[in-house]
Amino acid sequence: MSFSLSRRGLVLGASATALAACTPGGGGENFINVYTARHYEADRALYRGFQEATGIEVRALTGSAEQLLERLRAEGDQTEADLFVSADAGNLWRVKEAGLFQNVTTEALEQNVPAHLRDPDGAFWGFAKRARVIIYNKANVQPEEVASYDALATARFRNHIVMRSSTNVYQLSTLAARIERLGAENAKAWAAGVKANFVRDPQGADTDQIKAVGAGEAQATLCNHYYYFRMSQSEDPADRETIANTGLVFPEQAGAGTHVNISGGGVTANARRRDKAVQFLEYLVSDEAQTMLAPLNSEFPIRPSIQPSPELAALGSFKEENIPLDALGRHQAEAARIYEEVGWR
Ligand code: FE2
Questions:
Q1: Span from the CA of 258 to the centroid of ligand 1 (angstroms)
Q2: Please, are residues 71 and 63 in contact by the beta-carbon 8 Å criterion?
Q3: CA 55–ligand 1 middle distance (angstroms)
Q4: What is the pLDDT of residue 11?
């Protein structure tokens, strides 16, 4: 069962135990092994749906993207992993760069996944989408003042910005997208401008930045939309207050569109069950799976024709940035260097 495997996956440090969990033997032979950095109930519903549709059991081993990549690398051609699934194209690109994905292209995948939400070579394919949005404090900021990412780098926001660390892959991908679109020099000027506006050194994750803005410690920040969305659905009085004090803007609507990223997956280079793994990738973007995922997931469906949940749709529709997804990986090292140079740790 995927359930017990997932639980064992939590002790990934004990790699011998975890490897045994992925070795065929227990149960039937009709299965695939997925290394996944996602650990959502929504994903388990997808595994069940796939098994019902095809008879193929999904055995999931969970861990952080870094842990799973290191593991895949160490296992080499001995790996039992057929697929690698993670949020953020930056993470998936690292797997591609390590030579641990194989390129896969099928008609169903090409039809269902927009070109800018998959790797151009077919190394990985998106199945859900997230947006990098601006959260602002309603008492101090008008939404028009944060209509672009550029605004966060202007003198208007001196001592009013909080950000998480630049070592986080979301921040790396955000800057990598800017490098692709506007060049390294522009990206550096932006990063330096935002850094100059910090009211405190980077600390915490996306949710901590939202809380700081809600508490009035800062006026604006960047986060992935689903962190804000989850807080907006929370019953916790503290979360409700944060949401009451803040607003969300999809930046760049008059320009290139809001930066988006994917949750996605690819077939491992040494997959023992390649065909079944491809079947699973196709399932993830099928009508059935996308429709099932939409109300369970706080990300957006990868397919424009499938509606998100009404609650999520209430955040608003938005124009999204359209750049080749592998650019987020290709510019990752340069993005890290720029952050380092401007002192955004
Ligand atoms: Fe996240």
A1: 17
A2: yes
A3: 31
A4: 34
Q: How far, in Å, from the CA of 89 to the mean position of ligand 1?
A: 12
pLDDT at 27: 55
C-alpha 226 to ligand 1 mean position (Å): 8
How remote is the CA of residue 65 from the centroid of ligand 1, in Å? Answer: 12
Over residues 138-190, the pLDDT tens digits come to 999 999 999 999 999 999 999 999 999 999 999 999 999 999 999 999 999 99
Task: For residue 40, name the pLDDT band (cuts at 50, 70, 90).
Answer: confident
pLDDT tens, residue by residue, 111-129: 999 999 999 999 999 999 9
Residue 215, pLDDT above cutoff 70: yes
The SS3 assignment for 165 reads: coil
Place of tokens 């995922």: 293
pTM of the predicted protein model: 0.90
| Contact call for residues 246 and 252 (beta carbons, < 8 A) | no
Calpha distance 194→174 (Å, rounded): 13
Instruction: Give the DSSP H/E element, type plus range, for residue 224.
Output: strand 220-224
The alpha carbon of 162 and the centre of ligand 1 are apart by a number of angstroms equal to 17
Token pair listed for 70: 């290191």
Ligand 1 geometric centre to CA of 102 (Å): 25
Q: How confident is the model at residue 2 (pLDDT cuts 50, 70, 90)?
A: very low
Question: Contact at 8 Å (CB) between 46 and 284?
Answer: yes
Q: How far is the CA of 224 from the centre of ligand 1 (A)?
A: 7
CB-based contact 209:135 (threshold 8 Å): yes
CA of 30 to the centre of ligand 1 (A): 32
